[in-house]
Predict the 3D structure of the following.
Amino acid sequence: MNFKNVFRWHFLFLILLSLVSVRALAADTLLVLGDSLNAGYRMPAARAWPALLRQHKPRWVVIELGGNDGLRGFPPSQIEQDLVKAITLSQQAGAQPLLMQIRLPPNYGKRYTETISAIYPALASRYAVPLLPFFMEQVYLRPEWMQDNGIHPNPDAQPFIAQWMADRLLPLLKHES
């Protein structure tokens, strides 16, 4: 494992470790672990869709990871290992992981994109965690919601994403209560 991966997992571990101590304080919140799609790339964090939901002291952890690794051509086995770590660390911290499906653009080749896509339902089944659909599949349909880089949603898309995610998360959160 290179330094970048060690740092990434150290940071992830610290976040998840903090879940243990704060779980008793507020048991009904949601943490979103993700990449630039969730961080509101090139916009204030307060305008990104997770800020339009709830944050801090999570009972549930949405895991939306692997897209950047896939875009950089990482081996599927490494992406799977990273997701397994995020799932198991979340569970060990007493939080319920919720895994989000990731899909790569078709220009990465059918075999690679299908292999990456297949990881998510397999892990959801293996670890008995809910699998959320990839919200970007809805956003890509509206070019006016995309930034000029063609990868990231713009501020106009954030309310739609927040509502779309809330519609999928609320039944899961109520079920787990």
Remarks:
- The two ends are 37 Å apart (CA to CA).
- The CA atoms of residues 8 and 82 lie 10 Å apart.
- The first helix runs from residue 3 to 22.
- Confidence is low (pLDDT under 50) at residues 6-27.
